[in-house]
Design brief:
Rossmann fold; Dna Ligase, domain 1; 31% helix; globular
């Protein structure tokens, strides 16, 4: 039996439509896409592994490590398929998750419907006991009442429990004691807010611990099943999960805190794009990840994706901020819309083409898959427009039915708008691209950036089909489609560091700053973060310290990066200087002229990561050697407004420095890159495709 080696690594990404597998064998990449199996998600991983190890000529026992990301937790929250969950909370706070913050995310909608809370009111239990904002006990915990609540939960067929007490981030004693009492009579998992999300703002914190408890039984069962079946296959290597913040954690940690997996797949994509940016020395990048169900945009500066401490999942109202479930955990910040290859096209009451958020997924899939789907998806529109080869989709594994696509498009959209199939398909793709362009502009403006200043990195099975058109709409002159773009997130998993971010909210005004107390708090956070990292890393670990600060009275705070060193006597002056510098960078100027205006620290963050090896640098090349396509295909051209002959080029036939003049389609196993009339494509030294706008100075 061949023993495993650590230089053979495998990434597995379960998406809403496809499961992507990437196998790195000592620097050589093997990859495949397999339709996601909803009934048994682990089966698609096993099927994909069988394909790539066959191509690589190795056995499962030789795999050294498996890194996994999944949308299963996200889908369980969106589709409300989690466990029946009980919430135990402080008396008087039973309705926090239903009242929300009372913010109207659509101010002028008189019929505004707030999202339904994850846990219904009858499943929320309250108990006396109160911790103050400073962490002091104001009222003892009613332990007798907790005994009664445990009996009611035991009799109620619940599958999980969430505990969220007011101000538990400052003092977790009541939550821990409540868990101890409940666990005597319950054999189901119990999640407490002080461990899941030890941050201020009770709505976000309560909702996060509820979400964690809601998906915990399902995810724990899935992860246990996956490990068992991998061992049965012969792959007895360690399995790690990528979390929403972009680092790796153990399966055991993921089973206990599955809410940290909610954005794991997109996080892998952002890491993939950041690695490309670092490789080419690109300081301003926007990543564009379009898969089968969603499309994601992420800003990457100085080779690192932007991060946040909270995000929303399952937005219900035109993707408006505030209309979803807030999840208060560290996350790579991005904007996500329901516009993937499987997103359904439809006509609204005003006669406008709309797409998503509903997706055909892998079952039944778009109409062209021939798996029972009857409604038109974006993939159907791409096929009708000629962007896809019906006989060479997914390396020929799936034969596409063009007539089925045309029939679905006409039945649901074209006939209602009195358009032919080609015009309807173009309208569908234009709506998708315009929605994505608008989302990208908003995301950039919210972060004080100009989207056109960036180079776009496009990946995911569908993004290269739409990237050039999206660049035309956004005024972006350069776009890169990396090698392996079709399975970019899975490759990104292989680039991710072992990392964990520990957080703690401690509201502290600079006038009352105590260096000794803060040093002790940061020491505890560092020990916690490093202990998670040590489960998979044995080398050097570095820590990033961040204080989230604001002027007293403000509603939100800004991140202030700090040196990894203890605070001394000059701490207050140094913190004030750093805060004002970062405040000015965020908002243009610091607030001046108000005597006595306090500055306060709301939350501390310690992010521990293992040190990754340096990447090999590459220089962008414009290419001088023109490659002439040997075959052509009729593809709808947005500039001329009708079909046009596009050159068809196999990506594997191109070498570094080769230049392909648009219009053309560069095809490969997992995706195709559409080079519109406005762009030329040049193959880079690492095999990436660089699209450059004709006549630009880029």
């Amino acid at each position: 039996m061949t023993s495993r080696t650590d230089d053979i690594r495998l990434g597995a990404d379960i998406g809403g439509t496809f499961t992507d597998i990437a196998l790195d064998v000592r620097g050589t990449m093997f990859s495949t896409k397999v339709l996601t199996n909803y009934a048994a998600p682990e089966q698609a991983i096993l099927d994909g592994i069988a394909i790539v190890i066959r191509d690589a000529g190795i056995s499962p026992s030789e795999i050294g490590i498996i890194i996994h990301g999944t949308t299963l937790a996200t889908n369980a929250l969106i589709e409300r398929r989690g466990a029946k969950t009980a919430l135990v909370t402080t008396e008087g706070f039973r309705d926090v998750i239903e009242m929300r913050t009372e913010n109207r995310f659509e101010q002028y909608d008189l019929n505004l419907q707030l999202p339904t809370p994850l846990i219904p009111r009858e499943d929320r239990f309250t108990v006396k006991g109160r911790i103050g904002a400073e962490g002091q006990e104001l009222q003892p915990l009613d332990e007798a009442a907790l005994e009664e609540i445990a009996e009611r939960i035991a009799a109620g067929s619940f599958g999980s429990v969430a505990i969220g007490f007011i101000h538990a981030y400052a003092n977790p004693d009541h939550e821990r004691r409540a868990r101890e009492i409940l666990s005597r009579k319950l054999s189901i998992p119990i999640s407490i807010g002080a461990e899941v999300s030890p941050q201020m703002r009770e709505f976000e914190r309560f909702n996060t611990v509820c979400a964690n408890a809601y998906v915990r039984p399902q995810m724990a069962d899935y992860l246990a099943r996956l490990q068992t079946r991998l061992k049965e296959m012969g792959a007895e290597c360690p399995v790690f999960m990528i979390h929403s913040g972009g680092g790796l954690i153990s399966v055991e940690t993921a089973s206990e805190f599955p809410v940290r997996l909610v954005e794991s797949g997109p996080a892998g994509g952002a890491i993939f794009a950041a690695d490309i940016a670092r490789r080419f020395g690109l300081e301003k990048v926007v990543s564009y990840d379009m898969g089968g169900t969603t499309a994601k945009i992420c800003l990457i500066e100085d080779y690192a994706p932007r991060t946040a401490r909270t995000f929303e999942v399952a937005r219900t109202y035109r993707f408006s901020k505030g209309s979803g479930m807030p999840i208060s955990i560290p996350v790579i910040e991005m904007i996500e819309i329901g516009a993937g290859g499987g997103s359904i096209a439809w006509v609204d009451a005003m006669g406008r083409i709309q797409t998503g958020p509903e997706s055909a997924g892998s079952e039944p899939g778009p109409a062209c898959y021939g798996r029972g789907g009857k409604r038109p998806a974006i993939t159907d529109a791409d096929l009708v427009l000629g962007k896809l080869d019906a006989h060479n989709f997914a390396g020929g594994a799936i034969r596409l039915d063009t007539s089925a696509s045309e029939q679905a498009i006409m039945c649901d959209v074209g006939e209602r708008l009195s358009l032919d199939a080609m015009s309807t398909a173009f309208g569908i793709c234009e709506v998708v691209d315009e929605n994505m362009a608008n989302a990208a502009r908003v995301h950039a403006v919210e972060n004080g950036k100009n989207i056109s200043d960036n180079l776009m990195i496009a990946f995911g099975g569908a993004a290269p089909l739409h990237a050039a058109r999206l660049c035309e709409k956004l005024g972006i002159d350069r776009c890169m489609v990396p090698k392996g773009a079709g399975v970019g997130s899975a490759i990104g998993f292989l680039k991710a560091p072992f990392g964990y971010e520990a957080l703690a909210s401690r509201l502290t005004r600079l006038s009352k700053f105590q260096p000794v107390e803060v040093n002790a708090l940061l020491g505890d956070l560092k020990a916690s973060a490093e202990s998670f990292v040590r489960t998979g890393a044995s080398g050097k670990i570095v820590c990033e310290i961040t204080a989230f600060m604001r002027y007293a009275g403000q509603g939100w705070e800004i991140p202030v990066p700090l040196a990894d060193e203890p605070f001394g006597d000059d701490a207050v002056a140094r913190l004030k200087e750093l805060f004002e510098t970062n405040y000015q960078r965020f908002f243009g100027r610091a607030i001046e002229g108000l005597d006595g205006l306090e500055i306060e620290i709301v939350t501390w963050s310690v992010k521990a990561t293992d040190v990754r090896p340096a990447v090999t640098r590459h220089e962008l090349t414009t290419g001088k050697r023109t490659s002439q396509p040997t075959t052509t295909r009729e593809v709808f051209d947005p500039v001329s407004g009708g079909p046009r002959s596009y050159g068809i080029v196999e990506r594997d036939a191109l070498c570094a420095g080769d230049r392909v003049a648009g219009p053309a389609v560069i095809v490969e196993r997992e995706t195709s890159t559409v080079v519109t009339t406005s762009f030329d494509a040049v193959i880079q030294s690492d095999g990436a495709i660089l699209l450059t706008r004709k006549g630009s100075q880029a």
